[in-house]
């Protein structure tokens, strides 16, 4: 379909919207400031917390397959969280954006740094949690110049006695969790063509799933499954191309008619454009063990200049449901057809069971970069609710009959023409930073943005391994002059329950616990704990750098609960780096406990018994543990 034919379809249904609804959608933004919480709903939702790892451990970035980031630990709770103090810290010395959560198993903490992607195992049984082993994989420095938005890494996964994570230069590696010995290393992509890898692998059984980054360099986006024991590739599905390349077969049944047809991953693109159309898979994967289905999103199309790629540009800015064993697609839904603003669809999908209009539904909750929060039937791909969670003006809303956004024509960019005040900007109403869900409240919690941009598109030629971009953006705060916000969202009603406005971006992940708490951090370095029901801030601590990592919690060898978060600003949060008060770079892990008590404190701590030095590439350790 041509761009000319696309616009009437996108605008279909506009006449059905009243002026009042239009105004409400157009002006949607932070609804409830701190101090005016709305009544929380009855918990009409639940989640499957498989694989049900030990309560005091944390084996994967989201802790469970459903991506809830919920912990059943409750020693630290709303009544005593004000007593949190620093128990111990660890600095890895890498001055790039720290976006990963630590992992904990068998009284060992595992860390993965940004480039050069060093892995550390810390012994939690010894005073000060010293280094047990470390591993420097020595990825090629060429990948630094190919990374779009800092040389970040979103962490590893512990599975079958292995720590598995991705390197920026397109290798997936597995280390022996006890010794740090490399067990296998698999090359997944080509750095010279602009591919990098920053996502955290996602493991189910004997399969580990990984995807590529590089949506701004015209890569061919893909997701792949590897054998956990050998690293051998089992299957690979591309985001664009023929049905065979996308792994679409007879069982593919999208809910909406405009996504039905043969080889739409080619025909919705100009001739020859699909294989450089991006759709990279660089963020989060969820898994439903009842149906053996994985869910994940794809990135923006390439180039980002929409005039150069008329058509819907399937399957970019899209969510896929796939058979985890075969990789065959079951359904898909494109959030932003013919994405004109770089609204990747890669954000996390939280899998819940919900009662909606009296009917029990298996759903997924997705806060898209286009600033709409979707509750989708994960069995069929039907959009059940879609409401703005952040200020936006690119759309008049989502037509639930067609699943189509109703595009505001005034917000469509044209080549070489400055388009002011587009909301949200390319980094969205929410970026990759993951949300959390609490079964105690039935709410989903997320750090979101209040940002707009002035946008100018410039036609862009394709040269492999170079930016295939063309977008020039100036970003600034939206109405209210705050860049960030932390909110609680009712996924059944599709509404904001309470929110906390922040001057700087809220780009950390979220953590919900059974102690009726939710934790998050800000780009200027505040780490906060809030009451999960009311949104009242109960505790805040200023860290040495900004927070863009993911908080987690674990039980130490002493039987007590700890909260951990990395401090190290970078990544997309650097768009606000010129603001007064923006912090310096950093690389410190902070671990908190009640009153700061741990084996790292006390009058008798005279020395530390460590298993080995840090394996840094500049120490010439050659990647050996």
Automatic annotation (TrEMBL):
Residue positions binding Ca(2+): 216, 300, 342
Keywords: Calcium, Disulfide bond, Metal-binding, Oxidoreductase, PQQ, Signal
Enzyme Commission code(s) on record: 1.1.2.-
Cofactor section: Ca(2+); pyrroloquinoline quinone
Gene Ontology terms: cellular component: membrane
Gene3D superfamilies, sorted: Quinoprotein alcohol dehydrogenase-like superfamily
Biased composition regions of type Basic and acidic residues, renumbered to the chain: 616-625
Entry's Gene Ontology molecular function annotations: calcium ion binding; oxidoreductase activity, acting on CH-OH group of donors
Residues given in the record as pyrroloquinoline quinone binding sites: 99, 154, 198
Signal peptide (UniProt feature, chain positions): 1-33
Compositionally skewed regions (Low complexity) per UniProt: 35-51
Ranges for region Disordered: 35-55, 603-625
First-tier enzyme category under EC: oxidoreductase
Annotated cofactor note: Binds 1 Ca(2+) ion per subunit.
Catalytic residues (UniProt): 342 (proton acceptor)
InterPro entries attached to this UniProt entry: PQQ_b-propeller_rpt, PQQ_MeOH/EtOH_DH, PQQ_rpt_dom, Quinoprotein_ADH-like_sf
KW Acetylation (keyword) present: no
Pyrrolo-quinoline quinone repeat domain: residues covered: 58-384, 504-563
Pfam family membership, one: PQQ
Cystine pairings recorded for this chain: 148-149
NCBIfam families: PQQ_enz_alc_DH
Family stated for the protein in its record: Belongs to the bacterial PQQ dehydrogenase family.
The name this protein goes by in its record: PQQ-dependent dehydrogenase, methanol/ethanol family
Taxonomic source organism: Ramlibacter ginsenosidimutans
Upper lineage: Bacteria, Pseudomonadati, Pseudomonadota, Betaproteobacteria, Burkholderiales
